[in-house]
Amino acid sequence: MSTFLIPFVHLCRTAGLSVSVAEALDAHRTAVVLGVEDRAGLKAALGACLAKSPREAELFEKLFEAFVGMYEALLPQAEEGDQWNPLTIPEDITPLSAALLKGDRAAVLALVMDAFQELAVAPPPAFTQRGAVVFQALQRMGAQAVAGDVNSLMTLGAGGARAAQMLERRAASLVREVKTFAETFTRLYARARWNQPDPSDLADQPLTALPEADIPRYLAAVRRIVRRLRTRFGRRMKKTRRGRLDLKATLRRSAAFDGVPVEPVFRRKKIRKPQLVVVCDVSRSVQNVAAFFLLVLHSLHEYVKRLRTFAFCSNLVEITSLFDGSDPEAIFRRLLRGEGIPLQIGLTDYGAAFRELDARYAGVVQHSTTLVILGDARNNRGDPAVDAFRRLSQRASRVIWLNPEPRTLWGTGDSEMESYAPFCSLSRVCNSLKHLEELVEELVVDG
C-alpha cells in the first residue's frame, strides 16, 4: 500500500495540498483497512484525510482520478492462450522475468509501482526528463537482466525456446507500457508543479492589478508564507519563554551540589504580544493588497494579543468577526465581493473613515496600540480630516501607513499622502507578497 500512497502524497503536496506527516499516516492506516478493491470507498476515505477545504477537495478528486487511472491503464491483460506453466520456470530467474512468464499482472504492477515510488519523491520529475525516468524505472525493476534470462531459457530445449520467445515479447510490451506510463507520470507531476508555484516566483509581482484567474496561485503562495512565519514565530516564542542563562544565579544554586551546575537558571522574559488596529481601504484599486494582507495577519492571530480590523470605502465598518473560523479562500472572495459586509462602495472617503474611527471607536486606539493604515490615500478631492487622523496618531503607540503605490506617486493628483505622512511613525510601499511577509513579521515581532 505504501508504494501507492507515498508517490500519491508527494503528488498532492506538489499540487499545493497541505498534507502533514500525521495526515499521511492517517491516510495510510485508512488505506490498509479498506484496501484497493473498493475504489469509491478508498477515494472518500483518503479525501477525508488529505483535503481540508472545498478547494482542496476538488483538487484532490482530480489528482486521485488521474493518479489511479494512470496505474489502472499501465499494463494490458495477458493474451488468451499465451500462458506458461509456472512449474517449468527455472528457480534462478529474476522476479520480473518470472512475473512476465506467469502473466502475473499484479506482480508486474507491484514492481512498476516500487520503481516509480522512488522517482516520485521531491524534487518531482520534470516533463522533459521522461527519457531518464524510463531508464531509471526499468533499471529499478531489473529489466537489464531479462536478456540474460532469455539466453538461459534458450538452453532448455524446445520448451525453453518457446518460453524465451514469450519472455522477449512480453518484455518488449512492458517497455512500451513503461514509456507510456512515464510520459503520463511526468506530465502529471509537471502539471501539479505548475499549478503550485514557488512563492519566490510571485514574491515581487504587484498585487494591485491581479487577474482573477491567478488568485488561486497567489493564495497557495500565501499559505506557504503563513506556514513559514508560523515556524519562525514559534521558534522565537519558545526561545523567549526559555530566556537566557543567568550565570550568577546558576553558580549560586550549584553550591548545593558541590559546585556542579545541575539546575541551570534562566532569566525568563515576559512575552509581549502586540495590539493591532488595522484600517484597510477596500476600494477596487487597493482591495487585492488589503485582502491578502488581512489573510496573512489573521492567520497568525495566536501571536497577537488583540487584533481589530476595519474596512472602508465610502463608510467605515468593523470586519474582525469575518475571520472567525472560515476558510481563507472563502474569506478572500467575500472581501473582494463585499458579501455580508455593510460597506458603501462609492467614492473613497478617508476623511469620513478617520472621523468615524476617532469618534465612534475612540477607545479602540490606545497608547499600547499599533495603528496600521493600508491604502493609497487618494481621497477624491474630499476633506482629508487631518485633525482626526492627528488625534488618532497621538493616542496610538505608533502609526504605520502601507501604501500600494510607488513613492513617486505619493502627493500627486488627489493623493493626500503628504498630509498624513507627518503623523505616521513609518510609511512605506506595500504592494507585493514579499512586502506583506516583511511587514507582518515586523508587526508581530516588534509589536
TrEMBL record:
Cited Pfam families: VWA_CoxE
Domain of life, source organism: Bacteria
PANTHER family membership: BLL5662 PROTEIN-RELATED, BLR6139 PROTEIN
Protein known as: VWA domain containing CoxE-like protein
Organism expressing this protein natively: Desulfacinum infernum DSM 9756
Lineage: Bacteria, Pseudomonadati, Thermodesulfobacteriota, Syntrophobacteria, Syntrophobacterales
